[in-house]
Amino acid sequence: MTAPAHVRRTARCARWEGVGEPFTVVEVPLPGSLAPGEVLVEVELATVCGSDLHTTTGGRPAPAPSVLGHEQVGRVLAVGPGDPPDHLGGAPVEPGTRVVWSVAASCWSCARCRAGMPQKCLQLRKYGHERWTEEHPLRGGFATHCVLMPGTAIASVPEAIPAEVAAPASCATATVAAAIEAAGPIGPDTRALVSGAGMLGLTAVAMLDAAGARVVAVDPDPLRREQAARFGAAESSAPGSAIGEVDVALELSGAPRAVQSCVDSLTVGGTAVLAGSVSPGPGARLDPERLVRGLHRVVGVHNYHPRHLRAAVDFLAEHHRTRPFAELVGGRHGLDDLETAFSAARLGTSPRQALAP
């Protein structure tokens, strides 16, 4: 493997021991060598995602122990032998490159990967959701280092993007890029509904506005509705308010009533994209006649294709100075203060909390 001479020999990671248990910070050796396709990255900053919170409370099944975290930015220290990793059209992945990486690693050879759905690979392995072992202890973002697995999408990140802005690209921003692509063409004649003005929703508002759409943001929190205006929303309202018909509806909160509202709000030819419903819950009512006569589409989006990670970074590079993305991330906690970061994240004062390991 290629690596600079000053690479340290150990790493520290915050190991999650299970629901109701505190994190344990452990020191582990860095790999003496890397397998073909592996990349060693030093983590600059990670953010606490909503799914991390759901994992620690038992709302999302996950193996324990494990190292959580799948939104992070870091710098490449070493690259395994063989062909260099695909850099998605950005700078080459080599020691010194600043990067974000996909939430999962795909095999790229199974039926789903060949069908263009690597995010649903039959051999999928997810960062922040793999069981911790002594052989593979660095598989999550809440650590000083992460060993990227073969099949991981990697995107270079310009130095000008603040770490707080870049880290969520690995999950939130790329997921929104996938959702907007699924919605179909967006332009000046598009009236778009964004349901939920959290991290994903505010990002969606900014992306849709940049594409020329007139955006309506819906959220029960008046402060979030106010924030949506700063990200480009032309209108904002509380759930249950009349919003009229829309061409595109993005549901990013996962609230059952919000799902129903998105489906019911579509005009003729409209598309509803559901990306927030990642936990079991009550179903929504679907009127088949209205769906047929309205030429409606209802699309589900979960995770994303590697091209969406590149699109996320490119969007942030172009727009992070004109939209207050950095304000969406609060705190800057150390690895030993991860419990404090999670407590702050549960309070919801900021859509994300930062961890600088």
From TrEMBL:
| Coiled-coil intervals | none
CDD domains named among the record's database cross-references: MDR_TM0436_like
Alcohol dehydrogenase-like C-terminal domain: which residues?
200-317
The record, for InterPro entries, names: ADH-like_C, ADH-like_N, ADH_phosphonate_catab-assoc, GroES-like_sf, NAD(P)-bd_dom_sf
- EC main class here is oxidoreductase
Domain Alcohol dehydrogenase-like N-terminal stretches: 36-158
Q: What cofactors are annotated for this protein?
A: Zn(2+)
Q: Which domain of life is it from?
A: Bacteria
Q: Could you tell me which Gene3D superfamilies the record lists for this protein?
A: Medium-chain alcohol dehydrogenases, catalytic domain, NAD(P)-binding Rossmann-like Domain
- What's the EC number here? 1.1.1.1
This protein's UniProt keywords: Metal-binding, NAD, Oxidoreductase, Zinc
Q: Which family, according to the similarity comment? A: Belongs to the zinc-containing alcohol dehydrogenase family.
Q: What is this protein called?
A: alcohol dehydrogenase
